[in-house]
Amino acid sequence: MSANLAEEASDGSEESEPETALETAKRQLARASAHVDIDPNVAERLEHPMKVHEVSVPLRRDDGSVEVITGYRAQHDSVRGPYKGGLRYHPEVGRDECVGLAMWMTWKCAVMNLPFGGAKGGIVVDPKKLSTAEKERLTRRFTQEIRSAIGPTKDIPAPDMGTDPQTMAWLMDAYSMQEDETIPGVVTGKPPAIGGSYGREEAPGRSVAIVTREVCDYYDRPLDETTVAVQGFGSVGANAARLLHEWGAKIVAVSDVNGARYDAAGIDVEKIPSHDTEPEAVTAATGVGTKISNEELLELDVDVLIPAAVGNVLTEENAADVRADLIVEGANGPTTFAADAIFQERDIPVIPDILANAGGVTVSYYEWLQGVNRRQWSLERVHEELDEDMIAAWESVKAEVNGGDLSWRDAAYVVALKRVAEAHEARGIWP
Ligand code: NAD
Questions:
Q1: What are 100-111's pLDDT values in tens digits?
Q2: What is the distance in A from the centroid of ligand 1 to the CA of 195?
Q3: Rounded to 10 degrees, what is the CA torsion of 130, 131, 134, 138?
Q4: C-alpha span between 319 and 347 (Å, rounded)
Q5: Which of 176, 220, 229, 334 has the lowest CB atom count within 10 Å?
Q6: Helices and strands counted in the chain (H then E)
Q7: In angstroms, what is the span from residue 4 Cα to ligand 1's centroid?
């Protein structure tokens, strides 16, 4: 499994080895179920996806040959609303992985109290080996193959690994052409010219910053006396670092894939371009602090550590050496199950990914609302609504932490499962 594919599969494992996304998802469900008074029939229902679509997609290559490629769309649960989740193009995409990640989306949407269920899809292809024209043809034909399964009230894909706003634009266009009307609500993460939301790109980083602000407040740490180390200076890491810097925190270290820069006096993060404009700008930024390794960054003596690059970076091997007082997960699955247990033993709170980086799917919800209502929100409105929704989710999780002997991660899953289970119990299972 690649680091990225493993990233969402890390926090339920009993071993230090990454397990599959489906195993992780089932363990998370079992863990949360132990803390929730849930009807066993509902728990049984939630262990299984509602539907998994497997399609074969003929792709005409630029040389004229045709290759048939497999694609999936796994739909885990829609009791609270249409399925929602990313669409990834990656050579290691598989059925079980899509099911596991779809389950994970169910919990992420539920912890945010969004009226969506969980889905995930993908095509088994290396996007780097496709020309732009091939990627477009593949996306359009895949859309046609899954057309009956998706739609603004059924299942709404979004970008994920190997896909981007352009991919979503092709998907929306292919779907709209077949339906004979423009239907922006069928996807999120579109370019703003066709109904994409302002603030969508920065949203996961923004939610990480909001949650960091709240957790600092919870543990009585004034933000302007807080030091922060951020691993990864991409969409999530750079946006979180810049906002926290703006709000008065001292960002003492940031990194890219090649290494990190550290300055105990603080780094002016506005001066470093983020990954999308210049991929290795952190290590190229000579004159900014001293160069240290990514491993050293994770072990810095800081108030807050934000791993925001890839999965499985906090492991059994380094968890005992982590000196941060708080960890806020920016990336998906940066903490392995074994590391999580060590942090719990060491009383280091870990704010889980499903809460901290959920700003992305939340602004996707706003984009869907804007598409369905044919109305564009201002950036200010997106920020205000996101702040409000993040605080509401934070308060729900905090209430579970305060009310029982739960870690922040378990509390987030309990909030999500309670909401999903309650909806199932109200609607009933039709056996
Ligand atoms: P990105 O590609 O924009 O940036 C990634 C950053 O991490 C870059 O600075 C890169 O140099 C660095 N990096 C890559 N590999 C690394 C490694 N092995 N060690 C240290 N640094 C490394 O990515 P992103 O969109 O910011 O996503 C980061 C994480 O957040 C991923 O786990 C992703 O799944 C998760 N996430 C992203 C979004 C989103 O919408 N962008 C939403 C939720 C979660």
A1: 999 999 999 999
A2: 25
A3: 40
A4: 12
A5: 220
A6: 15, 12
A7: 9
